[in-house]
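We emphasize that the prediction below concerns an isolated chain of 204 residues; any contacts that depend on oligomerization or on bound cofactors are therefore not represented. The input was used exactly as deposited, without trimming of termini.
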Amino acid sequence: KATTKQIYFLEEDIENKNKHCEKLESDITAVYGENVRLKLIIETEEENLEKLLLEYGVYRRKMETHKELISEVESKKPIMTELVGGKKAVEKLKAKKEELRMDLQNPEGNMIKQVQKDHTYLKAEIAAMKETINEQAALLLKEEEVHAQLKKDIEVQNRRCEAILKRLHCQLNKAQSNKRQWNWDIQQMEKTVSQLRRSLGIVE
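Result of the prediction step, given as a C-alpha cell string:
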C-alpha cells in the first residue's frame, strides 16, 4: 500500500511537471514570437534611421551650399558698392555746384543764365540720385532682414533634425534593451526546461 501510494504521488507529480513543462514551452513560443516581432521593429527603425540620416545629410549639404552663397553675396555687397558710388557722385555734384555758385558772381548775363540752367539740372539730378540711394538703402535693409530670417530658419531646422535623431536613438536603444531582456528570459526559461527535463529523466 505504501508503495502504491508513493507511485500515485509520483505519477501526480509527473503529471504536474508535464503540465508545467507544457506551460513553459508555450511561454517560450510566445517569447520567441515577441522576439521575432521586436527584431522586425528594430530592423524597421534602423532603416528609418538610415533614411533620416541620408535626408539630413542632403539637407545639411544644401544648407552649407546656401551659407556659402550668402557669404559670397555678403562679401560682394553690390548694393553697398552702388551706394558708395552714389555718395561719391553726390559729393562731386556738390563740389561742382559750389564752383558754379562762385561763377554766378560773374556779371556776364549769358553765363548767369547758363549757370542757372545747369544749377536747376543739377538739383534735379541730385534729387534723383538721393532717391536712388534711399531705394538702394531700403533694398539693402530688406536683404539683410531676409538673410537674418534664413539664418533663423536654418537654426530651427538644425534643432528639429537633432531632436528627431535623438528621439530615434532613444527608440533604438529601448528596442535593443528589450531585445536583450527577452533573450535573457529565453535563456533562463531554456535552462529551467533543461533542468526540469533532466529531473524527469526526459531525453532531449
